[in-house]
């Protein structure tokens, strides 16, 4: 690992911790992504994490807040765009027809994509708006 990669790992660790401390399972390799997608039979929220400001101020807090709800996904997982590139690319392969964006969030049921929130529906919105998008999708798909 070169100095740049080491630096980026170090500064992104608190961004990883924010989600894992809230109970998200981090998928860091393509194999972990494939294993999760192949074996998951329940509803799940997938957060594609990022180092950008809209991930810090909007996506991560909204994802965590949305889980303080009776109706929520059975599983919560995350991949980190720009950090775990191969795992993120592998996860995006499951979102057929969806342009890559980070941060973003997906709700799946089993292996099937049910709802997707791209960066365009995160950046420029209030955290409450994103929580509402998620909880509305939870009502429908979880």
UniProtKB/TrEMBL annotation:
<protein>
    <submittedName>
        <fullName>Putative bacilliredoxin, YphP/YqiW family</fullName>
    </submittedName>
</protein>
<dbReference type="InterPro" id="IPR009474">
    <property type="entry name" value="BrxB/BrxA"/>
</dbReference>
<comment type="similarity">
    <text>Belongs to the bacilliredoxin family.</text>
</comment>
<dbReference type="Pfam" id="PF06491">
    <property type="entry name" value="Disulph_isomer"/>
</dbReference>
